[in-house]
Write a structure and sequence with these properties.
- By secondary structure, this protein is mostly helical.
- It is about 45% helix and about 5% strand.
- It has five helices and two strands, in the order αααββαα.
- A two-stranded antiparallel sheet has the order 1-2.
- The longest helix has 15 residues, at about 25-40.
């Protein structure tokens, strides 16, 4: 799957969620990110074909930075190797607390 600007724009809220969670660290999110990273580290799609230059390592399937994608609780692996934990709406509600 080739990542396009249209795809990135459509998923911008998930990308921003991952960036926010990478900056404002939470123990639960970090535990989830570690578990997801363990899966990604041995995945055949892990690489450097990033949608945003300089954000490697990335998922070569979707182009997302693994640092951000694994911290986005509403994101899932494009190859179904790990699932979203929350919907985007649930994530937004958590942000309001």
């Amino acid at each position: 799957m080739k990542t396009t600007l249209k795809t990135i724009w459509k998923d911008r809220s998930k990308i921003f969620e991952g960036i926010k969670n990478a900056i404002i660290r939470d123990e639960f999110v970090e535990d989830v990110a570690r578990m997801r990273h363990e899966i990604c580290d041995v995945c055949e799609f892990k690489g450097n074909e990033c949608a945003i230059k300089g954000s490697a390592p990335c998922c070569n399937e979707c182009g997302c930075s693994l640092s951000f994608k694994t911290r986005s609780l509403s994101s899932e692996c494009p190859k179904n190797k790990w699932k979203a934990i929350l919907s985007e709406e649930e994530e937004d509600k958590l942000d309001e607390l």
